[in-house]
Amino acid sequence: MRVTIFGTGYVGLVTGACLAEVGNDVICVDVDADKIERLNHGEIPIYEPGLEMIVTRNHQAGRLQFTTDAASAVDHGEVQFIAVGTPPDEDGSADLQYVLAVADTIATHMNDYTVVVDKSTVPVGTADRVSQAVAQRLTARGVDIPFAVVSNPEFLKEGAAVEDFMKPERVVIGSDDEQALEVLRALYSPFNRNHDRLITMDVRSAELTKYAANAMLATKISFMNELANIADRVGADIERVRVGIGSDPRIGYHFIYPGAGYGGSCFPKDVQALGRTAQQVGYEPALLNAVETVNDRQKGYVFEQIQSHYNGNLKGCCFALWGLAFKPNTDDMREAASRRLMEALWAEGAQVQAFDPKALEETQRIYKDQSQLTLCETAEAALEGADALVIMTEWNVFRSPDFGHIQDTLAAPVIFDGRNLYDPVDMAEMGFRYYCIGRPSID
Ligand code: NAD
User: Fold this and answer.
1) What is the pLDDT of residues 8-64, one digit of tens each?
2) What is the reported pTM?
3) Which fold would CATH assign to domain 300-435?
4) CA distance 8 to 51
């Protein structure tokens, strides 16, 4: 099938590469000329496990092309995917300007029946707005070309995006247009061989399903963080509580890890946007508001622990920071808990020596003029001359470090662990002052 994809970010590039991988002829179009040039030179602008290999393979085979030329890209595709960003607007609602701009571009150049697929995460009612934008442009052109707008929200996880796309748990398609549904059924059939993973529904339900999924996951995290803070105060160990409740199949072990708060490009903005949608229809989203409040507080928690350990005097302190990305296996720094921590430390006059296996380049791009930040090529280098170690991302490589070396290198054996990677008893036995989340600290 001939497919056009607008947006070559985490979602668009993965979608394009995976659809090309199963034999489709894909053109990815982006307004970012620099990104397109890099892609055309074989450079992958983001880190995502397994992505480079399939992009390179399909690009070389001619099944995956990159362009800034929207006219030829629209002309190419029977199916046009919208996979551009939907960042938060000033009031927290999703900013649809990029989605609607793409709808207009598609309508400006399309000549035959076109299936417009909305893959970006968008509020309920957006498919109607996309339809209106397309219809308006067609009317302005004085042409009458049939089209359908389908909602096909994306559920891939950064860090496992290729795997998730190739072996999806579900593919949600919202449409009442039988012809469009057939096109998407055919497009997704290579990913649907083992058992039927296609869930079809009306457009509005599909749009809401994406927000419901992210809001549910964010709620689980905030719930566990709330419990961790209670555990902390009553002398209980949240990790034991976690295992205790996870054993109930109605609760399950997934996604109930306490930590330094959720970040990333999706949970914070999607919880906010769903809340604004609720308010716009006259419903006060009490639970969603609480999920956000708890997360916001949690993102400041490690900093509070640090401040309290140093009696509020952080000026001149130097911290080794392991983990910058908002979660492991990605270079994405959007809304990362590490950013909030670093900015708070800098405001107090502290220095940060940071290491991350994949996010150093992105950190450099964001904080290029920050003199209180040193980016280190190894985890060990970050420890040199530091007063304490802080862990903000649970990369595997941090799980079993050389504790003797950490102790010998830091000015004092102090670790602030925002991801509960180690056992507090072991840490105390080794002589560390170990701060973690929701577990009794042992002196
Ligand atoms: P991103 O910011 O990584 O990429 C968006 C891309 O769209 C950018 O390269 C930008 O230049 C491009 N773009 C903007 N306007 C354009 C236009 N008019 N024409 C062509 N390209 C244009 O975003 P992302 O993380 O891939 O997310 C895209 C959407 O998918 C968002 O709605 C997001 O909420 C949703 N989503 C993201 C994830 C994720 O894990 N990142 C998962 C599921 C859904």
Assistant:
1) 999 999 999 999 999 999 999 999 999 999 999 999 999 999 999 999 999 999 999
2) 0.96
3) Rossmann fold (3.40.50)
4) 12
What is the torsional sign of CA 321, 326, 331, 332? negative
The one-character DSSP state at 88 is: B
Q: What is the pLDDT of residue 440?
A: 83
Cβ partners under 8 Å of residue 168, min gap 6:
155, 156, 191, 197
Q: What is the DSSP letter of 218?
A: H
By the 8 A CB rule, do 368 and 335 touch?
A: no
Handedness of CA 2, 21, 214, 367 (dihedral sign): negative
d(CA 108, CA 80): 13
On the question of pLDDT at 441 being above 80, the answer is no
Q: Could you confirm whether 376 is annotated as catalytic?
A: no
CA pair distance 48, 10, nearest whole angstrom: 8
**Which CATH number, 3.30.1460.10, 3.40.50.1820, 3.40.50.720, 3.30.70.1150, labels domain 2-201?**
3.40.50.720
Query: Choosing from 266, 317, 318, 376, which is the catalytic residue?
Result: 266
Domains 211-297 and 300-435 alike in fold:
no
**Residue 298 in tokens:** 């949690």
Which atom of ligand 1 is nearest to 266's Cα?
34
Q: Which atom of ligand 1 is nearest to the CA of 119?
A: 30
Is residue 152 a contact partner of residue 191, using CB atoms and an 8 Å limit? Answer: no
Contacts of 370 (CB under 8 A, 6+ apart): 346
Question: Domain 211-297 maps to which CATH number in 1.10.10.10, 1.10.1040.10, 3.40.190.10, 3.40.720.10?
Answer: 1.10.1040.10
Annotated binding-site residues read 30, 35, 86, 121, 155-158, 210, 255-259, 263, 269, 327, 334
The residues spanned by each domain of the chain are 2-201, 211-297, 300-435
Residue 8 Cβ inside 6 Å of ligand 1? The answer reads: yes
Pairwise CA distance, residues 229 & 235, whole Å: 10
Coil vs helix vs strand at 323? coil
Instruction: Give me 9's structure tokens.
Output: 């970010």
Cβ(120) to ligand 1 under 6 A?
Answer: yes
Tens digits of residue pLDDT in 232-253: 999 999 999 999 999 999 999 9
Reported as a single tens digit per residue, the pLDDT across 146-169 is 999 999 999 999 999 999 999 999
ipTM of the complex: 0.99
